Amino acid sequence: xxxxxxxxxxxxxxxxxTVGLATQVAPHVDILxxxxxxxxxxGVRLVQELRRKFPNNLILVDLKTMDAGEYEAAPFxxxxxxxxxxxxxxxxxxxxxxxxxxxxxxxEAQIDLINVPNKAQCxxxxxxxxxxxxxxHTGLDAQAxxxxxxxDLQSIAALNLPVRISxxxxxxxxxxxxxxxxxxxxxxxxxxxxxxxxxxxAAREIRQLVEAA
Amino acid sequence: xxxxxxxxxxxxxxxxxTVGLATQVAPHVDILxxxxxxxxxxGVRLVQELRRKFPNNLILVDLKTMDAGEYEAAPFxxxxxxxxxxxxxxxxxxxxxxxxxxxxxxxEAQIDLINVPNKAQCxxxxxxxxxxxxxxHTGLDAQAxxxxxxxDLQSIAALNLPVRISxxxxxxxxxxxxxxxxxxxxxxxxxxxxxxxxxxxAAREIRQLVEAA
Lengths: 213, 213
Hints:
Two copies of one chain form a homodimer.
Chain A (H helix, E strand, L loop, with lengths): L4 E6 L4 H11 L5 E4 L1 H7 L1 H10 L4 E8 L3 H10 L4 E5 L4 H13 L3 E5 L6 H10 L4 E5 L2 H5 L5 H8 L6 E5 L7 H6 L4 E4 L1 H4 L4 H14 L1
Parallel strand pairs in A: 1-2, 1-8, 2-3, 3-4, 4-5, 5-6, 6-7, 7-8
Helix pairs in contact in A: 4-5
């Protein structure tokens, strides 16, 4: 099995802070994620800037698209996004639109299972329509209520679908190896890196833990 | 009953085209809506620009927030947004976060019922937590599949909740009066105005129809 990829969630709203944090962590992570509040705040020019500055990282735009899938996502792929996300709760037509936009750009679409009532069924639909990644995701508001993504990861991994599984929701140094061993192809780390005294050192530590898992 | 407000959906992606269309329709509509793809594409500076240029219109930012409600919405209220939207499928914690941000800015929160399985229950929760507007919304992808918002409007209006009901989904000159008579406090019009030969004339026609309804 290929080594799991590490995705850094850039959750700031500020354009320059986001670029600065990306600069600190880029050597140690695979994917730079522009978080949903951040992309809504800054717009597509932030994708263009990160694309220009970080040619060796993948860029994920966490659009969480809910409607007008192809129309919304296409310009973010054109701007240099490698992966865009679409909500599973949006329904098949919207998901298919983002998959279409991804394929037209030789890029990838991620179906976010956040708040999907029947996650296994949605993951199967996602695989069937050609999405490359399924995201098991406990949101920030749900984390604040004590929820974690670990049980969902196990049930989705057990389906053995031809997709990579991305896992997000409070992953840190003490849980990242468990997540990789449970079948995550992409581990998303946010606060455990950006709230550390040295985000670069924290990202390097996460990388060492993933490589040893 | 107060006259229903008219909301113009600005669905372009281009910054200048959006400002140009807003200029044509602003005298004839109450609310200028920055559509979801448009806000993701352009970021908060578009809110600031419309706020500056159109002091006599309300500005709705169609964030369709799915997580981190207060964090995501607060800066858009601070930038001059009068109404931000949050998805009903996000759950109560996220909705409450946007309501909190709205109240902190003497502004309004709209709960979007798009794809919510139990719309009546969600509308009741929205009213209970102090949201000012509930949105009955058939998305563009669902419209392409032939769906309309009219049945949902009737069932939500029958609840007699202390909220205004906003209705969106393919409303045009031939349906706008029916929507107002069925209880809509806000009617959202998009393509019927922006695809018309003269968007300004189309907006004026919509206004005459709403006033006569």
